[in-house]
Amino acid sequence: MHSDQNIALRTLFVCSLLFSFVRTSTTNTLDTISPNQYIRGDQTLVSAGGTFQLGFFSPGKLTSRYLGIWYTISNEIVVWVANRETPLDDSSGVLKVTDQGVLVLLNSSNGVVWSSNSSRTVDNPVSQLLDSGNLVVKNANETNPDNFLWQSFDYPCDTFLPEMKLGWDFVTGLERYVSSWKSTEDPARGEFSLRMTPYGLPQLVVMKGAKIKTRSGSSNGLRLTGSISRPNPLSEFEFFLNKDEVYYEYRLLNKSMLSRYALNPFGIAQWFTWIENTHSWEPFFSTQQDQCEIYAFCGSYSSCNISNAPVCTCLKGFIPKSPEQWNSQNWSDGCVRNTPLSCSYNDGFFKYTSFKLPDTSSSWFDKSKSLKECKGLCLENCSCTSYANLDIRDGGSGCLLWFGDLTDIRTFQSDSQDLYIRLASSELGGF
């Protein structure tokens, strides 16, 4: 028997070298608990494929205890914390699932420290840790793999995982967003959040409190409009919008890969990939790599170009609003029109091809309109300042209109998306 076990272990070791990361064997582990079971002390749930574990931990040198989910291969990377605002004082915490299907975390005096918040109940509830990192409560006999009573993916912490939705459920009012830890050793909610704003054309932003810190933009069918055009060999992204919900999610092209998008306590969002050769998480992408990533760094009607000196330049037909401030390299006041619009069909448009599209908070869109129709609609409205295709795939389709000031524009070094900015006819000259 021992010989068979040794052969099996050697086989497992050899097979593991064929994958990009090592998965832990789960022969003697559980991924599910029912009302007659619990997790306490050093006990853990391990997802079926061995990717994630759920259990109790103490961050850094703290003695406070939290219930969290982490990577088996890298247990210092915690992706979700249940009781992030209410830590346990000692190691006496117990996680149970009630007969009604509610997860409860109890302290030494059986007081409820944290619980899942579902208004529905099921007859035969279980809680399961999925290999996606999602902790779910469901009916044990449920055949629909997506029918959950409750799921941790609806309540992210500082990590945006593959197959997790980031956005709004307009029916229930639920907002799914990522929020940073307070510090590297305190998982309490910090001051930064990664979320989708539902106003105008929805867009992804990093916020500091109630103010936008950086803006990744909206989807143009191929990518986020604030992203530099480059091939993405790791994942595919999806933007979904209808009357019931709007969300953004990504899926890994290589299912054996480990990847995560995390918001650190300093407000920097980074996309990490696990590299087995170095046994480390390597950053693939990071927000705020330069001044031009700072929201509205150059103010309105101005473009930020990190390759220029100075980095801020007024758009064609615009001049600095505060010349003295502008010349002292304080560009936050932005620019204003050199010539007012006539508010008629005599106005025209100047085409830019290498811009990060402006903030879409005060925008309007229609998937069915052509670019020509879009131009006409803009000219009919005195408040319309710019237009573009909503979707740039297959030659472009749909209409996106901006109303009010154009803010948070930057120049990319390669072509991105055409943007047509409204100008008085006298400013267009031969264009």
If you had to describe this structure to a student in words, what would you say it looks like?
- This protein has 431 residues and is mainly β.
- It folds into 3 domains: 134 residues, Agglutinin, subunit A, CATH 2.90.10.10; 133 residues, Agglutinin, subunit A (Orthogonal Prism); 138 residues, no CATH class.
- 8% of the residues lie in helices and 39% in strands.
- It has a 5-stranded antiparallel sheet.
- β16 and β17 form a beta hairpin.
- It is elongated.
- The N terminus is likely disordered.
Q: Any key phrases for this structure?
A:
431 residues; mainly beta; 3 domains; Agglutinin, subunit A; 5-stranded antiparallel β-sheet; single chain; signal
Which helices and strands occur, and which strands form pairs?
Elements: H1 2-16, E1 32-33, E2 38-40, E3 45-46, E4 52-57, E5 66-71, E6 74-81, E7 94-97, E8 103-106, E9 112-115, E10 125-129, E11 135-139, E12 150-151, E13 159-160, E14 166-169, E15 174-176, E16 178-183, E17 186-197, E18 203-208, E19 211-217, E20 235-241, E21 245-252, E22 259-263, E23 269-275, E24 280-286, E25 302-304, E26 312-314, E27 318-320, H2 323-327, E28 335-337, E29 348-355, E30 363-366, H3 371-379, E31 384-388, E32 399-403, E33 409-410, E34 417-423, H4 425-428
Parallel strand pairs: 25-33
Antiparallel strand pairs: 1-10, 2-7, 3-4, 4-5, 5-6, 7-8, 8-9, 10-11, 11-12, 13-22, 14-15, 14-21, 16-17, 17-18, 18-19, 20-21, 22-23, 23-24, 25-26, 27-28, 29-34, 30-32, 31-32, 31-34
